[in-house]
Amino acid sequence: MNDFGWRALGAGSTLAAYAALCASIYLREHRRKAAAARDSATLSGSSDEPPVLVLFASQTGQAEAIAWQTARQLGAAGIPARVMELNALDAPTLAATRRALFIASTYGEGDAPDGASVFVERTMMASSPPALPSLSYSVLALGDRQYANFCGFGRALDEWLQAAGARREFDRIEVDNSDPAALATWQAQWGEVPEPGIGDAAADSFAQWRLVARERLNPGSAGGPVFHLGLVPQSGPMPPWASGDLAQVAVASDPTRPRDYSIASVHADGELQLLVRQEQHPDGTLGAASGLLTSTLSIGDTVALRVRPHQGFRLEGNETRPLILVGNGTGIAGLRAHLRARAVAGRHDNWLVFGERQAAHDFLYREEIEAWQADGVLKRLDMVFSRDQAERFYVQHRLLQSADALLHWLDDGAAIYVCGSLQGMASGVGAALRQVAGDTLVSELTASGRYRRDVY
Ligand SMILES: Cc1cc2nc3c(=O)[nH]c(=O)nc-3n(C[C@H](O)[C@H](O)[C@H](O)COP(=O)(O)O)c2cc1C
């Protein structure tokens, strides 16, 4: 599942049930975040009723979208609600809370998503965890049964809350991908179900996009073939997106699991570009989505696709900071979109640390990266080819070697963006960062949005 350029297993089909909603209302919702809590408060029957905390633990935004929708539903029922990322919650606030709803996804191998990692470290693993005798709570756990630790984090959170003495208001609900029944059960708990309900109107938001370009970028590679693709809508204008966002590709043979790809271009490019590694199964057949995109489709053919906001990997909030961009393989896609955005914005304080196998075959987007280096869009470039020397050497090793520079950039306020394989690369980069900068600083960077990951 590593580095095939898609993350279908995880981000697939619950998204299918949400992405249309998200696509149409996400930006509006984002702007309404501050207003939402206020709205719900004014809808409350009694002004001194403390708000219900609606807490989300999210990696790619699904749990967050459900949290906002749940808060709106509560507001409509006259119950004031306050939405918060779990990382923003501290033990005293939780201990003082009477009612909380937790919406939590699972990543890695049963781990918390990045949006909860600081809460796990500071509160769940604290040597003296808080006592929560006055808290009544419910958990909605998002996950995918294809993973061994189905809903692992949601379950761990539920158990931790029990152990802290909190009272379960409703039994934990576990959502396997788009399972509409589970989502409907969750909604039914919070009063009248709004129109549209969670997941409604999702299926029709895919549009047909035409493949206008396809080029293999790594001929001769020892790894799977990697293709750069260009797509434009078959009709109508291109929908907006920001660097960091994802594109979902629908697969006819597997309609409940659309595949997510990091968008490699910016809107101003006039083309939605993807970088796709062709996945080959042991029996020789190609991966459903990667095979469709890299082999079955011909130039001029169309594919069902939609843009998916990925708030957690956007540049928002870090526009004026130096950027350290770290990745491997097809992870260059998300980093390239950010670098193209930075070039347009005239921000040249960018450091790219990118890993692949061999310079001769795997230097993806070589001309572009070298041009950025030449014209200063990249202030620093570290290309790390693992197989060009006797000992395997990866991006995390380069970061360790460059500890002084890393600390210097962080001192200057840099934000770190990591895109690519979760196993091996992103986990190794996380460990290297902790080794160089210390656990406390890394937690602070995560909590303040200066350490963001698009990993799969
Ligand atoms: C790399 C990766 C690892 C995942 N690991 C698990 C897992 O161990 N257990 C599980 O139930 N779901 C797992 N998932 C599925 C996600 O929890 C699920 O897609 C969830 O709905 C995502 O919600 P979010 O967008 O709020 O983060 C994983 C997904 C990805 C992409």
List the helices and strands and how they pair.
Layout: H1 8-11, H2 13-43, E1 52-57, H3 62-76, E2 81-85, H4 91-95, E3 99-104, H5 114-124, E4 136-143, H6 152-163, E5 167-168, E6 173-176, H7 180-188, E7 207-216, E8 226-233, E9 246-249, E10 259-262, E11 272-277, H8 288-296, E12 302-308, E13 323-328, H9 332-345, E14 350-356, H10 359-362, H11 366-375, E15 380-385, H12 395-401, H13 403-411, E16 415-420, H14 422-437, H15 439-447, E17 451-455
Parallel strand pairs: 1-2, 1-3, 3-4, 4-5, 4-6, 13-14, 13-16, 14-15, 16-17
Antiparallel strand pairs: 7-8, 7-12, 8-11, 9-10, 9-12
Helix pairs in contact: 2-3, 5-15, 12-14, 14-15
The structure holds flavin mononucleotide.
Flavin mononucleotide (FMN) is lined by residues 7, 10-11, 14, 58-63, 105-110, 113, 142-144, 147, 149-152, 422, 456.
Account of the 3D structure:
Residues 52-191 form the Flavodoxin-like domain. By secondary structure, the chain is of the alpha/beta class. The chain folds into three domains: 8-188, Flavodoxin domain (Rossmann fold, 3-Layer(aba) Sandwich), CATH 3.40.50; 207-309, Beta Barrel (Elongation Factor Tu (Ef-tu), domain 3), CATH 2.40.30; 312-455, 3-Layer(aba) Sandwich (Rossmann fold), CATH 3.40.50. Helices cover 36% and strands 22% of the residues. Strands 1, 2, 3, 4, 5 and 6 form a six-stranded parallel β-sheet that branches. Strands 10-9-12-7-8-11 form a six-stranded antiparallel β-sheet. Residues 1-45 have low confidence and may be disordered. It binds flavin mononucleotide. Residues 7, 10-11, 14, 58-63, 105-110, 113, 142-144, 147, 149-152, 422, 456 line the site of flavin mononucleotide.
